[in-house]
Amino acid sequence: MKPFIYETMYILRPDLNEEQVEQTIAKYKDLLQEQGAYDLEIQHRGKRRLAYEINDHREGTYIQMNYQGPPTQIAVLERAMRLSEEVIRYLTIKQEVPKNTTPDTTAPDTQDQPEPLAAVVE
């Protein structure tokens, strides 16, 4: 099975204090690692105003996680987020891991070069 790169963005309730936010982040990080995720990178995006009201909240704390792993981990993570009272919205996207290919540097790139002008010989 091919590994995939995943990005999960989730929004936490704005009334959580910093300690509760860190505990929630650690909970989902540990959950992903238990499910086989690796190359885990977490970015705390801070508290921001929402574009529209969600569950009577006008603000939320944004957290972004980038990681790789098997597709089965997503169902477990999203189920935990759906049941959580701290998370007001989440979204996961995936990409295939790019293949390790190098561009062919031996062939000249002729698309960007103008046509040579013909010389007039008299």
Question: What do these coordinates show?
Answer:
This protein is α+β, with helices and mostly antiparallel strands. It has one domain (4-96): Alpha-Beta Plaits (2-Layer Sandwich). It has a 4-stranded antiparallel sheet. It is elongated and about 45 Å long. Helices cover 24% and strands 40% of the residues.
Question: Secondary structure elements and their pairing?
Answer:
Elements: E1 4-12, H1 18-34, E2 38-54, E3 57-69, H2 72-83, E4 87-96
Antiparallel strand pairs: 1-3, 1-4, 2-3
Estimated share of beta-strand residues: 35-45%
Distance between the termini: 68 Å
- Summarize the biggest pleated sheet: 4 strands, antiparallel
**CATH architecture grouping:** 2-Layer Sandwich
Computed structural class: alpha+beta
* Count of alpha/pi helices: 2
How many distinct folded domains?
Answer: 1
**Can you give the helix content as a percent range?**
10-25%
Q: What are its keywords?
A:
122 residues; alpha+beta; Alpha-Beta Plaits; 4 strands; 40% strand; elongated
